[in-house]
Design a protein that fits this description.
With 328 residues, the protein is α/β, with parallel strands linked by helices. The chain has helices spanning 11-22, 39-47, 67-72, 91-94, 96-115, 152-171, 193-202, 222-233, 257-268, 292-298, 306-327, and strands at residues 3-6, 27-31, 55-59, 79-82, 122-128, 175-180, 183-184, 207-210, 216-217, 220-221, 244-249, 255-256, 274-277. The protein contains 11 helices and 13 strands. It has a 7-stranded parallel beta sheet with strand order 3-2-1-4-5-6-11, with helices on both faces. A two-stranded parallel ribbon has the order 7-10. Strands 8-13 form a two-stranded parallel ribbon.
Length: 328
């Protein structure tokens, strides 16, 4: 029986699809291929998946009422990895309706699909470290209060967690929410700092360094994220009442933004032209994942240091992405 992956042309989603296919699972991927960032990148990610045995793809807007149910009602879906969402903290100030539609209405449609699948086993869905808002206590623990979001994006992700809890309570729907912390790596999102900094530095352009560089992020390499998602997917919370859990997925080693840029300078062999600016609305000063619970329940520990992970991204960007875009 196939595993459904929403956001299959996205950064994390495409990597998850590859991992599942490599271990022999059948995968149905869905994505609406929207233009929040250049769809060329999404098509490049999809190209790595199309034609592989066991993979099928449907271009679907998950927020459209009953679109998933109509397309997949006969597929006998038992497991879902739900990653489709409108991403980006700052963009939520410009286009809030996109977040309500994709992250809340879309999440509801996924819940309803799972609810209607006989013998459904497990829904794993993406939450975000943004739900911790401006919490001062670090590291961030799953037990911390998260009822003071500082961006609409964060509010929609907290809403997803509440909706999922309700469906687990009412209908016994097994679910696990994963609070991702600043995921990066090859085929990543071009609106993220590691990508925009790399592009600007190689083009000799200045980079914007917010809060005068006094920002800390728990950068988490994509391979570690994929390993965590697969481990969780294979172990639904069947004995919990209600059957739902939340886990942080981070690196447990926050990096200061200035040090992050220092590493990029060494890897690129380019000195950054740093333009220091005030912190942006919706941003938080620091993220820091307490990984105790995920290690306790799954034996999971992140393996990739920031230096190694950024090195892999830079190698990919130079050897593959620049070459690909010049040929398109």
């Amino acid at each position: 029986m196939p595993i459904l992956v929403t956001g299959a042309a996205g950064f994390i989603g495409s990597h998850i699809c590859l991992k599942l296919l490599e271990r022999g699972d059948d995968v149905v991927g869905v994505d609406n291929l929207n233009d929040y960032y250049d769809p060329t990148l999404k098509r490049v990610r999809l190209k790595r998946l199309l034609g592989r045995p066991g993979f099928s793809f449907l271009e679907i807007d998950i927020a459209e009422s009953l679109a998933l149910a109509r397309a997949l009602g006969r597929q006998k879906i038992r497991k879902v990895v739900h990653l489709a969402a409108q991403a980006g903290v700052r963009y939520s100030l410009e286009n809030p309706r996109a977040y309500i539609r994709s992250n809340i209405a879309g999440h509801l449609e996924v819940l309803e699909l799972c609810r209607g699948c006989p013998g459904f086993e497990h829904l794993v869905y993406a939450s975000s470290s943004s739900v911790y808002g401006g919490n001062q206590k670090v590291p961030f623990s799953e037990d911390d209060r998260v009822d003071h979001p500082v961006s609409l994006y964060a509010a929609t992700k907290k809403s997803d967690e509440l909706m999922s809890y309700t469906y687990a309570h009412l209908f016994g729907l097994p679910q696990t929410g994963l609070r991702f912390f600043t995921v990066y790596g090859p085929f990543g999102r071009p609106d993220m700092a590691y990508w925009t900094f790399t592009k600007a530095m190689l083009e000799g352009k200045p980079i914007q360094v917010f809060n005068n560089g006094a920002m800390w992020r728990d950068f988490t390499y994509i391979d570690d994220v994929v390993d965590a998602v697969i481990a969780v997917l294979d172990k639904p919370p069947l004995t919990d009442v209600p059957p739902t859990r939340l886990y942080n997925v981070g690196n447990n080693q926050p990096a200061q933004l200035g040090n992050f840029i220092d590493i990029l300078e060494k890897l690129l062999g380019v000195k950054a032209n740093r333009h220091f600016e005030v912190i942006q609305p919706g941003d938080v000063v620091q993220t820091f994942a307490d990984m105790t619970l995920l290690e306790q329940d799954f034996g999971f520990k992140p393996r990739t240091s920031l230096e190694i992970g950024l090195g892999k991204f830079v190698d990919w960007y130079r050897s593959e992405w620049i070459t690909r875009t010049s040929e398109l």
